[in-house]
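Narrative of activities, Objective 1.

The group set out to show that a structural description can be obtained from nothing but a protein's sequence at a throughput compatible with the screening campaign. Below is one input-output pair from the validation batch, recorded exactly as produced.
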Amino acid sequence: MKDERKITLFLCISFFISAAISGIFVLHYKLSREHLDSVSLDEDIVYDASEYLFGIDPVRKEDGLLIISGWAVREDEDLTYINNRILLIDQKQQAYEMPTTAIERGLTEYFNNGYSYEQGGLWAQCPLKEFTPGEILHAVILVTEQDGRRVYLDTQVDIEI
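Output recorded for this entry:
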């Protein structure tokens, strides 16, 4: 009977320690994903988007957040490597990277061209407090290909904060 209590106590303590550690990691992830990082738009970026299909959905501002979703895929090529980010460029031409996540958007079925575009969707959000009210920002998608080549996709979308 005493051994059963020890085992039960050990399992309870282990569970609570695991839950606490998990909570710390979740909190760290959440906090690290809620700010903008400055990004350099140096000369190695390719500004020819002719090989890409891409778009941005209507931008939303809700619950104190700026939310942007969209998609970007290289035309006529399976999507096997994903490193797409949504950038916001201010009027001084300073670029900021929004925390961006790849999501499934049904692009393979939509284009139905024999290529796989799974996870070609983009979703990003950041607090509106990162910006000055009335500020105008230009949204772009920056694709980093597997070979390191970076491609600038101009969405033609301006956002007024």
